[in-house]
């Protein structure tokens, strides 16, 4: 069996999966995508005092501003998640969550930690894809009305979302000399390049979903660590961030790469 036969069989399996899941895959994608915001909003409630004291001590901003920070994160994230899951005012919810990402990037000094910064940018990529999906749904309400061309903002949102999503995988690359790490890096790099340029996008994104979900269960098993240990919270944070990126990739699988991609250009050749 040659390379083309293997790729053909893999694409057939991916297409069959999409046909079976097309009605509920977008819902699962949205749930996964907002999971980190949902978890963080709930954590703000249960760790109210710790979060307030941390912000007050770190920024010396006073009790009132620290309370405002916690309130914005609590209601901003939970409110945004409710709107997205109920599919009401999705664009406003996405912009609100973009603001939360920016606020936390500054407040927790993530700007100076490359790994966490790349993961936050990957979260932003997932929100961009969700924003593109909401624009698509909005236009579908006006069937028959002439629409703007394929170079519309939606297509570039999908491109930007794909490119930002792959930053999560760049934080997972291990620069070790052992054989397993080398193979993992080669395969992973190949897949993220395919997603970025939009070539065999659905198959590559679906493979990345399986890969990232497996790594997430193995490396971020926070449920195996007692809740009182700091490592529990660190692993929980990483776990739900990874689930949000998985949600973004599932949106790529469900919606396709968009107009700015090699898959789309192949149709014109």
TrEMBL record:
It holds the Pfam family SURF4. One of its GO terms (cellular component) is endoplasmic reticulum-Golgi intermediate compartment. It is a multi-pass membrane protein. This is Surfeit locus protein 4. It comes from Chiloscyllium punctatum (Brownbanded bambooshark). Belongs to the SURF4 family. The chain crosses the membrane at residues 63-85, 92-110, 159-176, 206-227, 239-260. One of its GO terms (biological process) is protein transport. Keywords: Endoplasmic reticulum, Membrane, Protein transport, Transmembrane, Transmembrane helix, Transport. The lineage of its organism: Eukaryota, Metazoa, Chordata, Craniata, Vertebrata.
